[in-house]
Design a protein that fits this description.
There is one protein chain. With about 550 residues, the protein is of the alpha+beta class. The protein is built from nine helices and 26 strands. The strands form seven sheets. Strands 12, 13, 14, 15, 17, 21, 23 and 24 form an eight-stranded mixed beta sheet that branches. The protein has a six-stranded antiparallel beta sheet with strand order 4-3-7-8-25-26. The longest helix is centred in the first third of the chain and has 50 residues. The chain is elongated and about 175 Å long. About 30% of the residues are buried.
Length: about 550
């Protein structure tokens, strides 16, 4: 009996024990399962955050590597038609999505109520009227050529919808602030000094010679030519003096008989000495004095040569109006036998023989492109002649000829930089020189559409950017340069129809230069990455995954 009882006691687990064991297992399994699900969710969220961060960094790196107008171009015209590639390098694998608008890249505007709306780009129906464009760039050829269109606020918004990165897809909002603190805003009547950061002073060392043409004029444009002119003047002055002296001699000679009875005819030695004292023989004119009062004319033009764009230049030195102060009738360049006709000769005319008052160089090519779309900017650097103080007859004249090359809406689109330079060696200019300096700048085009009837709306193919009309004497406070009325600006066409000053500035989209380099355009930027679909819903904050701040301040 006893052995039977022991056997029954080891027969198995009771029902209660089974229930307790199962309960413990279930609780443990639930905890482990929840932990696994939570971990999976955390990993997925972490992975989404990492991929969104990668997108934000890619966008930020691209926009900081570009000038701001290039950023604006990329968002408005994301495909470069000349290369059929994306303007955003990291999106090149998605070029087909950009082309069929599955990946939507565009500029938007933010209303006062916080809603985002599309901006208006140029439409061919606008014709010459760009005033309807609210986008930050204006292009008449789908982004091949363009110009920056600053707004009054200095704030800009751009979006990307359906940007893929590995296994995730996102929407992106990019905000730029170039307002009061950064001075990146449109120049206005009340803000014409500090708000002119649309175009910037060029740094030659960092500019691509493939797309930029440089013409750098030394302070003395041509010493050899000037010396030859002065030497030729001396020859003509001596000839004229000899003729006058001979005439005086003949008029004042008298017969005298010497001791041997020989008769000679001449003025007396005393009369000869008096005449020479009053009419000394001409001497070579002073180079510096003549050059300081020489009219300098620089002509620059664009041409198409076998499908290549070339930029050519010639210069004319004209000293006809020079007369030495207090000098004799022979100490002047106006004795030139050409009568100052040489300065107005056509470019292809033969020079007038014996002319000493004018030197005209041949046209020389200083830039040649590899294709028609290469050239973007022409830079002219020169040292002003601060003896040029007469607005009606300035000594410094620059002519830019954009006549030959025609495109759909006018001539070749080009940015023309005209930059006056400081003479650091002679610590020139002074503020007084800057305020008195006067020069003439003429831009000539052959528009395909009439412009004189609607000058308020017409925009030239040439855009003028210059530090003329700004005082550059103060080098310690460059951003606060004061205005100076220096430039007589003229815009004209082949029929000699022209307009000057304010209307010419408006047509040429005139803008000043400040001291920042083109690569260092200043702005603050925020790249926000959202869940897919946020762009359609006005970018709600609840859908934002990551935000990345950046600035261009170097």
């Amino acid at each position: 009996m006893g052995r039977k009882k022991n056997k029954n006691s080891n027969a198995g687990m009771t029902l209660l024990e089974v229930i307790v064991a199962v309960s413990i297992f279930s609780i443990t399994a639930i905890v482990l399962l929840q932990s696994f699900v939570t971990s999976s969710r955390i990993n997925r969220k972490s992975n989404t955050y990492l991929e969104a961060t990668t997108v934000a960094q890619n966008v930020m790196e691209e926009i900081k590597a570009k000038r701001f107008q290039e950023v604006a171009l990329a968002f408005n015209y994301p495909i470069d038609l000349t290369t059929s590639s994306s303007r955003f390098t990291f999106l090149q694998p998605q070029i087909s999505e950009i082309q069929n608008n599955t990946l939507e890249i565009k500029e938007i505007a933010k209303n006062d109520d916080g809603k985002y709306t599309n901006v208006r780009k140029y439409n061919t129906a606008d014709g010459d009227d760009d005033s309807k464009v609210t986008a930050s760039v204006i292009s008449h050829d789908d982004g091949k050529t363009y110009k920056f269109n600053a707004n009054d606020t200095g704030k800009y918004y751009y979006s990307m919808a359906n940007v893929k990165n590995l296994n995730e897809t996102f929407d992106v909002l990019v905000e730029f602030d170039g307002g009061d603190d950064t001075e990146y805003r449109k120049k206005t009547v009340t803000n014409n000094v500090y708000g002119k950061n649309d175009y910037l002073s060029p740094n030659i060392a960092k500019l691509d010679t493939k797309k930029n043409a440089f013409l750098i004029m030394e302070k003395d444009w041509d010493k050899k030519a000037m010396n030859e002119m002065i030497e030729a003047q001396l020859i003509q002055a001596k000839d004229k003096w000899d003729a006058a002296h001979s005439a005086w001699y003949q008029a004042n000679k008298r017969d005298t008989v010497d001791e041997e009875g020989n008769i000679t005819s001449h003025p007396t030695p005393e009369e000869e000495a008096t005449y020479l004292a009053q009419h000394p023989k001409p001497e070579k004119l002073d180079y510096d004095d003549v050059y300081a009062h020489t009219r300098r004319i620089l002509k620059v033009k664009l041409e198409n040569s076998g499908g290549n764009i070339i930029a050519k230049a010639k210069y004319i030195l004209n000293a006809y109006d020079y007369t030495k102060e207090g000098g004799s009738e022979y100490e002047t360049m106006s004795i030139c036998t050409c009568g100052n006709k040489s300065v107005n000769l056509p470019d292809d005319a033969d020079p007038i023989s014996g002319c000493c008052c004018t030197y005209s160089s041949a046209y020389t090519t200083f830039y040649s492109s590899e294709s028609e779309d290469d050239l973007q900017n022409v830079y002219i650097f020169y040292y002003p002649n601060y003896n040029s103080t007469n607005r009606a007859k300035p000594l410094d004249e620059i002519y830019f000829d954009n006549l030959e090359i025609t495109v759909k809406d006018g001539n070749y689109p080009i940015n023309l930089y005209v930059t006056k330079q400081r003479d650091e060696k002679n610590n020139e200019p002074t503020s007084a020189q800057e305020l008195q300096y006067k020069m003439s700048l003429t831009v000539t085009e052959s528009p395909t559409k009439p412009w004189s009837a609607n000058m308020g709306l017409y925009k030239a193919s040439t855009t003028l950017l210059t530090n003329l009309d700004y005082d550059i004497s103060n080098i310690t406070e460059i951003p606060k340069r004061t205005k100076a009325n220096q430039m007589k600006l003229t815009y004209m066409d082949t029929n000699n129809r022209k307009t000057t000053d304010y209307s010419a500035k408006n047509i040429l989209s005139y803008n000043g230069l400040d001291n920042r380099e083109a690569e260092d355009r200043i702005y603050n930027a925020v790249v926000k990455v959202y869940k897919q679909g946020a762009a359609q819903n006005n970018f709600p904050e609840k859908d934002m995954i990551v935000s990345l701040n950046g600035a261009k301040e170097n």
